[in-house]
Amino acid sequence: MANQKNNKELKIVKAWCKGCGICVEFCPVKILGLIDEKIHINDIDKCIKCGFCELRCPDYAIYLEEDKNEK
C-alpha cells in the first residue's frame, strides 16, 4: 500500500451523524472526535485514509471521496 497513490479526501455529512462515536473508536490514528454529539476531524493532516471510519459508520455520515481533480 505504500506505493499506492491515495487521492481520497475524508468527508463528513454532519446532518446524518447520530453521535454514536463508532468511527472515533475505530480510527487508528485518533484524529476523530465528537463535538456537540457530531463527528469532528481534529487533525486532517494526520489522516492515513484507511477507511475504517467509513466502513464502521452505520449512518454513512463519514466517507472517503475520490479527488475529482485527479485523473
TrEMBL record:
PANTHER family reported in the protein's UniProt record: ADENYLYLSULFATE REDUCTASE, BETA SUBUNIT (PTHR43687), BLR5484 PROTEIN (PTHR43687:SF4)
GO molecular function annotation: 4 iron, 4 sulfur cluster binding; metal ion binding
Provenance organism: Natronincola ferrireducens
PROSITE patterns (UniProt xref): 4FE4S_FER_1 (PS00198), 4FE4S_FER_2 (PS51379)
Keywords: 4Fe-4S, Iron, Iron-sulfur, Metal-binding
Residue span, 4Fe-4S ferredoxin-type domain: 8-36, 37-67
Protein's name according to its UniProt entry: 2-oxoglutarate ferredoxin oxidoreductase subunit delta
